[in-house]
Amino acid sequence: MGADEHKSRRLMSLLKKRGYIQPAFELYGGVAGLYDYGPLGGRLRRNVIRKWLNHWIKLGNIVEIDSPTITPEAVLKASGHIGAFNDYASECKSCNSIFRTDHLLEGFHNNPDSLDNTALDKELLNHDIQCPSCNKTDWAPSEPLNLMFSTTIGASKGGRRAFMRPETAQGMFLQYPSIYRHFRGKLPFGAVQIGKGYRNEISPRQGMIRLREFNMAELEYFIDPESNKNYNLQLWDEVLVNLIPDPMGGDSKELSSTINEAVEKGIIRDKTVGWFMIKTYELMSELGINTELIRFRQHEIDEMAHYATDCWDLEIFGCYGWIECVGIANRGCYDLKAHQKVTKSNELKAWRDFEKELEIEKVVCSPIQSIVGPQFKDKSKMITAHLEELNGLEIEFPLTININREQFIIEEHMVEIKKIKSIERGEWFTPHVVEPAFGIDRIIWHILEHSYQEVSKENDEKYTILSLKNNICPIDFSVYPLYEKDGMPEIAHEIIDKIREVNEININYDGSKSIGRRYARGDEIGTPYAITVDHQTLEDKTVTLRERDTQNQTRLSLEELVQFVSKY
Q: Are residues 296 and 201 in the same domain?
């Protein structure tokens, strides 16, 4: 067993013992790819989500929405998930075990996720890849498997086919009209959504890294691609980040650069993407991720979605190597246009004012209502609207038009072709979208891993500390009476009641075992400060404040303690 694997097992054992994370349904044997957050883990997760949300909301032009996790089939068909949300799987002919093909090739190919099924099968053969279950090398041809969980809305016979959402993004695209009205039509603006996503992983593994039900946090930022992007990236000119550019750009070697310099050199192709990269880097640091173990990897041309203009993954290094935890992409106008095409809606656009008014001369097709009205009756209004959108120079009669699967014949005497002049003050266009998408569970795992320390005592005994950041730790303060007698527990509870008056402070009481054991237990679960009530407290109303990371102890009066907590 390697050192990294040994560390991950010790960490997972600690997290399970202390109520952070554990396999779900364990009493029934567990289910691969499903995990529970326990009493401490649930609080940590909530604090990370709150920190994530506040980081973006405070920008002022970003709002939070919430949409259902059950998504009708038509939505995911329009978005492309029905036809393309697949992973290739390979079945072992000897034992019938099934594995994701690209996972089998990790370590043998630099980017197996970018290969098609023919190339994947060829790589399996060339590298003589063994089945992890039976060590045989007899593989059936790889096949695409759709990763979405299907369900039915309504009664089984007349029910509507649907899926558990694989991402939160589609809910935000469909709420675009509401968000557009909220911001009075002034781009850029964004929406965030935090919630569950579902992917029926073929072979989930690596604990919290690859889950079937997971916590997502996504941001859709709607922009005008023709407007100036006023991001002052020079504010971060002292911050160097590690970048791995697309090798097709000429250099795939890792480099250290400011985001501003990378944008100016064209390494980062989109300035808005660059801005979200540095803001994401900033957030990871605030959450307690070791920034020396962060890098941004640019998607290669054959790896990137056909509609994207630039895409970078924020990867974090840990026990499982470099793991993608955030994806930041300029998705262009693909998503909104895909839903426009299916729904025929005009509400998925934005208005752009011209710098100068334009005088436009058009040749239009103007229906003669005295003829069109009686001829088409209740359909005349719909036909008139259609004809007025046509270019009069391109019409040949008789004209056949199709509206809502109905066909209508327009004769030359029914319309008037005429020239008109109009003043154009602006135009409707489809906004582009920059999307940072965060895997919350992967980020939480790396927060815990990067904060995990094993300190050796004088007797070589290992002493564990979780050095969690103050703004996300599950318990902020623990109060320990030296003994559970002589009035110490009563004073401890008085202190707890006083501190709880301070907003958003989570404090607990622990009187079990020796004070040394309690200090160790608090350090192990990441509590930053311990407050000890002892005999001196009974005499002068002072307590000992112990800091987790330095283990320094300070004597404070109760008034000084409350002041310290209020500034926490």
A: yes
Q: Are residues 259 and 203 in the same domain?
A: yes
Classify residue 60: in a domain, yes or no: yes
CATH number at residue 228: 3.30.930.10
**Strand order across the 507-509 sheet:** 507-509, 477-481, 529-533, 542-547, 553-557
**pLDDT tens column, 76-106:** 999 989 877 778 889 898 898 888 888 888 8
Domain boundary (99, 116, 146) is at 146
Q: Which structural domain, as residue segments, surrounds residue 138? A: 86-146
State how beta strands 321-332 and 399-403 pair.
unpaired
Query: Are 236 and 197 found together in one domain?
Result: yes
When pLDDT is cut at 50, 70 and 90, the band that residue 6 belongs to is confident
Total domain count, the chain = 4
Q: Is 407 exposed, middle or buried (0-12, 13-18, 19+ CB in 10 A)?
A: exposed
pTM: 0.86
Of these ranges, 1-10, 30-39, 120-129, the one predicted with the greatest mean pLDDT is 30-39
Tell whether 56 and 101 lie within a shared domain.
no
Alpha helices (H) in 300-401, listed in sequence order: 334-343, 369-376, 380-388
User: Which CATH number does the domain housing residue 536 bear?
Assistant: 3.40.50.800
Beta strand segments in 165-300, E:
189-198, 213-223, 241-244, 255-257, 294-298
* Same domain (yes/no): 119, 210: no
CATH number for the domain that contains residue 116:
3.30.40.230
Query: Is 131 part of any domain?
Result: yes
Assign 504 a pLDDT band (cuts: 50, 70, 90): confident
pLDDT at 132: 85
Over range 512-523, report the average pLDDT. Answer: 94
Asked if residue 77 is part of any domain, the answer here is no
Cα distances (angstroms) measured from residue 563 to each of 78, 203, 481, 560: 56, 52, 21, 5
| Cβ-proximal residues to 436 (8 Å cutoff; 6+ apart), any chain | 218, 219, 221, 276, 280, 326, 327, 328
In the chain, what's the furthest Cα-to-Cα distance?
105
Residue 459 has pLDDT above 70, yes or no: no
pLDDT at 99: 87
- Count CA atoms closer than 13 A to 127's CA, side-chain side: 18
138 with 187, same domain: the answer is: no
| Same domain? 417 vs 358 | yes
Pull the structure tokens for residue 44: 């940590």
Per-residue three-class SS string for 403-431: ECCEEEEECHHHEEEEEEEEEEEEEEECC
Instruction: Give which of 374, 363, 376, 373 is closest to 409, Cα–Cα.
Output: 376
- Residue 249: per-residue pLDDT: 59
Say yes or no: 373 and 485 in one domain: no
Residue 457 has pLDDT above 80, yes or no: no
pLDDT of residue 296: 98
Residue 155 lies in a domain: no
Lowest mean pLDDT, pick from 53-62, 141-150, 492-501: 141-150
E strand residue ranges, 34-148 = 35-37, 62-64, 70-72, 86-91, 98-100, 143-146
Residue type, 274: G
* Residue 76 to residue 165: CA distance in whole angstroms: 8
